[in-house]
Write a structure and sequence with these properties.
Number of helices of chain B: 6
Strand order of the largest sheet of chain B: 3-1-9-5-7
Shape of chain A: globular
Largest sheet of chain A: none
Mean pLDDT of chain B: 77
Helix content of chain B: 25-40%
Largest sheet of chain B: 5 strands, mixed
Order of helices and strands of chain B: HHHHHHEEEEEEEEE
Number of strands of chain B: 9
Low-confidence stretches of chain A: 5-15, 117-121
Oligomer: heterodimer
Shape of chain B: elongated
Radius of gyration of chain A: 19 Å
Strand content of chain B: 15-25%
Number of strands of chain A: 0
Radius of gyration of chain B: 35 Å
Helix content of chain A: 25-40%
Chain lengths: 121, 289
């Protein structure tokens, strides 16, 4: 999509304060990532239900020196920063219109995540 | 002016149109009288310029228009860039450090200026790092962090769906996919998302990612705390790495009247190849602490 941008609008490259995530070459935190992604699938991609697991992932990163150590409570994981009153189900179908075959109630998965024999089903 | 003798002309016309009973003689005489009174067109009735002078004026005006168009073409490039920076047109996101974000937030609250105006003013007068806004008080790291810790998810906010899209540059033999199709979150909530990258070739390759946000206006509110973009990432042959993005949507998103109907934001990443040599110096920030 960057190629569709006809303006020469490369924005100021000011690094974010927390910087860039170093690459996790040894997949040390992959377990936490898998747990988080499974939780997302179960909760239909609503993030605040899986907030604790994402906190675990960041904690793992810090433990393995893949992220600068800081207090996660101050990065949006504090107890007073819980999501209150968000809709349990975002009414995306009502807003965008019901489309036959879309958002069938089973976990979304990309086609390459299914086993090879399932690809052509 | 060619003067035809009157009798010949009327005789010729009478011969041709013998059935037409107009008095061409009298008509031609009347026409000649009129033009003679008007002055035969050699003297213009408007402002006394000669024909030559009027032609010259028109030539100068045309030349000025051409030169003006060329100048506008050159001026358009920086002006458009400034316009995109100020308004987030075309999906330019605002990449600021948290200090600057906190500063901008405070300035907006104090003075009540709009986001676009603030961006525009920053373009014109880039804020120098140092004492800000008249009070000699500099934001320290702790204060910026306190600003982030005071970021609260909006209560009863509507869920915004952030979809992820990934593209790989033509030459780059990488597999680059998001691990989750979308994440639904409330503005003010910090969220984590992942992309998986696989180097399918047999050489170590360095790539760099850029990103874009759709709809373009939402790019103003999409703030990233930490990501993997704008830094060269080097993958060994056959290696698979998971890259996280830690971001949030500014709570002011809900107050923007133009984004009232927007419930889907798309974050699109593109990976480009920078180097294929495996003995080039590594620009990774892997030992950043």
């Amino acid at each position: 999509m960057s190629s569709m941008n006809f303006s020469s609008s490369k924005q100021f490259v000011r690094p974010p304060q927390r910087g860039i995530f170093p690459l996790d070459h040894d997949a040390e935190c992959k377990v936490f990532m898998k747990r988080y992604l499974e939780c997302l699938k179960e909760s239909r991609d609503v993030h605040h239900k899986c907030r604790d697991l994402s906190k675990d992932y960041l904690q793992c990163r810090m433990d393995h020196q893949l992220m600068a150590k800081e207090n996660l409570d101050e990065m949006g994981y504090g107890s007073d920063q819980k999501v209150v009153g968000a809709e349990e189900y975002d009414k995306s179908k009502e807003k965008a219109g019901f489309v036959a075959g879309k958002h069938i109630d089973k976990p979304n998965s990309w086609f390459w995540e299914r086993k090879k024999k399932d690809w052509f089903q | 002016m060619i003067r035809m003798s009157v009798p010949n002309r009327s005789w010729a016309i009478r011969r041709l149109f013998s059935t037409v009973k107009i008095d061409t003689d009298a008509a031609q005489r009347r026409a000649m009288e009129y033009y003679r009174k008007r002055g035969h067109g050699k003297k213009s009735s408007s402002s006394g310029y000669t024909l030559d002078q009027r032609n010259q004026q028109i030539a100068w005006y045309s030349a000025a228009v051409v030169v003006g168009a060329i100048a506008a073409t050159y001026a358009a490039v920086p002006m458009y860039k400034a316009f995109c920076q100020a308004t987030g047109f075309g999906g330019t996101t605002q990449r600021v450090s948290l200090e600057e974000w906190a500063d901008q937030q405070a300035e907006r609250e104090q003075t009540g200026m709009s986001r676009v105006f603030q961006n525009f003013m920053q373009q014109l007068l880039p804020a120098a790092p140092g004492p800000r806004r008249g009070n000699a008080h500099t934001w320290t790291d702790e204060e910026a962090a306190a600003k982030l810790s005071s970021l609260k998810p909006v209560e009863n906010g509507r869920l915004i769906t952030v979809r992820f899209d990934s593209t790989v540059g033509d030459v780059l033999p990488w597999d680059f996919v998001p691990t989750q199709l979308d994440v639904k979150l409330v503005p003010g909530e910090t969220a984590l998302s992942f992309f998986t990258v696989t180097n399918k070739s047999s050489k170590p390759i360095t790539g760099v990612a850029t990103y874009n946000v759709y709809p373009p206006k939402a790019g103003l509110y999409f703030q990233k705390i930490q990501c993997f973009c704008f830094e060269e990432q080097r993958l060994l042959p056959g290696e698979t790495v998971d890259m996280p993005v830690f971001f949030f949507i500014d709570p002011d998103f809900l107050e923007d009247s133009q984004l009232n109907h927007v419930n889907n934001i798309t974050l699109a990443y593109t990976f480009f190849q920078t180097d294929e040599e495996d003995d080039d110096d590594d620009d990774d920030d892997e030992d950043e602490e």
